[in-house]
Amino acid sequence: MEWFPGINCDCILRHALHPDLPMICAEAGGKFPGSRVRIHYEVYRVDGEGGTETVSEIRHLWLTALLAEPLLAPDGSWFPIAAEEFRERLRAILLEKQDIQLITRTGRIRGLFGDDHVVINSIYPEVETFEIHLSTRTLCDLPLHPQRMWLDDPAAGGSLWGEAVWQPS
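^ thats the sequence. predicted structure below, dont judge the formating
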């Protein structure tokens, strides 16, 4: 089956060595309906040799995936991946620890790390949630305003996030 974020899933977790993991994400709630990926920016100042100071930056990406049987996809179809298969794919991708991709309806983030990943699995009577944390480890230039997420020059093909790269869909 082919997956399309925003149509039959909300986002896709990908690693070249494993099958894609399409995910249905928890609603963000509040003023902005729909699923979300949260990005947390951190800047650290590190004292270097000879009294020099360097800046270290990292971006943390959080998303909350839902798991239930049955589970409804954004297009109204039933999500076809069984719970155990979902868990196996998630575990396999995260154990790779690097070169992970997250594909959303607005673009693709390549070069993500799960080296210090956190998955918080909450189990309820009829649904499970997986709060997934990935990081870029280095610099990021993702626009702060969604209306500016598209590149001015489509030939550019992406914007650098240090090791991670943002590519519009």
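The helical segments are 83-96.
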